[in-house]
Write a structure and sequence with these properties.
heterodimer; A: Arc Repressor Mutant, subunit A; B: PH-domain like; 2 domains; 40% helix; RNA polymerase sigma factor (chain A); RNA_pol_sigma_r3/r4-like (chain A); RNA_pol_sigma70_r4_t2 (chain A); WH-like_DNA-bd_sf (chain A)
């Protein structure tokens, strides 16, 4: 079954099965943020597990996730402007 | 529980996820599943047409997140005992074909908001949906849980790791949403956190966030559950004390 494509978002809508190009996506992030993103979004670890692995506080993991996602948003905005 | 509910598979196909054939245990179940699947394809086409009518200017659908009583929970969004009285012929046909009342629920992620509805309600009345704008959500509790459980039809020795997620948020205007997501739901949600720019300002937490303390106590199913357990324990304790007093007094 296909939905009328007029209503489907184009750029930000990879089908759920199509693997995201994480390397490209995570380019704007700092090395630590990239590590945190890798563990959270790809390896599906919990913030507690990430904190233990990277020897940081759980709150710091959440902060990296929030800041990183804002950076990605800025990148999308920049991309749209260009 | 409906053993032959095709809702998740039908919605997954709408998301572009290829069909995952799960063999049913008997030919009768297989046939029933296929009958329901065909009926649901037709119903969902109509539902999608109605959903597209809700979209604003520049609003696009990103993907869909299916929820059922079989895979998710009936505790938070299924309503009082999951009851429903159909009002139109279309919803009556849906209930007859799917043997389901409020069990099938759909979360539609757009680039601006989440639209959530119970399928049968939405079939009856197009205004029966909840709209959660991303900029109205300061924080979302998205917490992963894991538990070891016996494999289906197996003895306790062979165990599978079961994964589920809690999704919980309150919008700035006081709408609370709580639900348990399956592992597959969780993957879709995580992908959306990364790929929907409007979601990037939402803080992800591992605890429920509410606008005020009243909502934290009375608008939180987990607090309610804890309070219920504490109350039940207190009543049990009082009963035991009364019983012991009566016994000792009698002796």
């Amino acid at each position: 079954m296909a939905l009328d494509e007029t209503y489907l978002a184009d750029l930000e809508t990879p089908p759920a099965t199509e693997p995201l190009d994480f390397d490209a996506l995570f380019t704007p992030l700092s090395p630590t943020e990239r590590q945190v993103f890798q563990l959270y979004f790809i390896d599906d670890l919990t913030p507690q597990e990430i904190a233990a692995k990277l020897k940081m506080k759980r709150l710091a993991v959440y902060k990296h996730l929030s800041r990183g996602r804002l950076k990605l948003k800025q990148e999308v905005k920049q991309h749209d402007l260009n | 529980m409906i053993l032959t509910n095709p809702f998740v598979e039908v919605v997954n196909q709408m998301n572009g996820i290829p069909k995952k054939y799960e063999p049913k245990s008997t030919p009768e179940l297989r046939q029933k599943y296929q009958e329901r699947q065909v009926a649901l394809y037709i119903t969902m086409q109509d539902v999608l047409t109605k959903v597209t009518q809700l979209l604003g200017d520049g609003e696009k659908i990103v993907n869909f997140l299916p929820m059922t009583n079989e895979d998710n929970t009936a505790a938070a969004t299924d309503g009082i005992m999951g009851m429903y009285a159909p009002q139109t012929d279309e919803s009556k046909e849906y209930i007859k074909a799917q043997d389901s009342l409020r069990g099938n629920r759909l979360m539609v992620f757009t680039n601006q908001r989440i639209i959530f509805f119970i399928v049968v309600e939405f079939i009856d009345d197009q205004s029966q949906y909840f709209s959660y704008e991303y900029d109205q959500m300061p924080a979302i509790k998205f917490k992963k849980h894991q538990m070891k459980a016996p494999k289906k039809g197996d003895i306790v020795i062979n165990q599978d790791q079961q994964t589920w997620y809690t999704l919980d948020f309150e919008t700035k205007d006081g709408h609370v949403f709580q639900e348990f997501l399956t592992a597959d739901n969780g993957k879709v949600f995580k992908q959306n956190l990364l790929t929907i720019p409007a979601m990037s300002q939402i803080r992800i937490t591992n605890h429920a966030t509410r606008n005020n303390r009243f909502d934290l106590i009375f608008g939180n199913i987990l607090t309610g559950f804890t309070a219920y357990n504490v109350l039940a324990a207190l009543i049990l304790l009082l009963m035991l004390i009364s019983l012991l007093t009566a016994l000792l007094g009698g002796a």
